[in-house]
Amino acid sequence: MFAVREVSLLLAKVAEETNRYDDMVEFVRRIVQLRLQLQPEERSVFTAAFRGALEERRCALVTLREFEEQDEHPFELKEAITEYKEKIASEAETLCKTALRHIKEDLLPVAPQGEHLGNLGKMRGDFYRYLAEFRMMKGSNSATEDGEKSLQAYKDATKECSHLLASHPLRLSIALNSSVLLKDILGRDDEARQHAAVCFDAARRDLASLDKAEFGLANLFLRALRENLAVWTECDEDKSKEPLPSPLLPNVEAYMSPAAVPVDAEVRIVTQGGK
Asked: Entry's InterPro entries (predicted)?
């Protein structure tokens, strides 16, 4: 059992280095199917695998949508592009559902209460949010339902880690992702701004209580929250501007691996809807 676990983790890391995210997904699935409590590094690799595979498909869908909107293409080609786009979107939905099934069936039953359940709850919220995003790209009516499931998962995760400081990286990552969900998926702009602002202010008050590693990572999430608030406020003040996608950290799971993000790491903010 330990050999399978260790070898699969190593292969998953190798697959990530070679950008073979579909292979990485298969390797991490071998680990979670053992139904053992995941170590922080394994949890980070699990999320990175599915996120990487989903990001490949999201970028493909954005490119295909641009082709689809070009007038010079003949009808037959546009029809073929639409069909291809639906195929990729279905693959993305399957990946999200697979991740959610593993969390529910393999990880939650063996997770102790508290921070471990909080992490898994956040992961559930993330994958429901990704699922909602892909279904929005398809124009599916079930996107809102998935968004509500994501929001509930984030709320459950927040309760599980309520004993942690408001500035703890886990609580801040939940605040960041749930505020983006409220804004970009559920369209609750005022609620998103209020939620982000409340979490930001609460975290700043007890930031000094964190240790050195947590302090640096908390600052990483605080900068992302502040950037979101700045973008949302600017768009709200100037209604003539087209709404911008919410800036989002490229890998909000990285903090779970202490060596993954140095305390003095430079944070690169990327747009959720960009290429």
From this structure: 14-3-3 (IPR000308), 14-3-3_dom_sf (IPR036815), 14-3-3_domain (IPR023410)
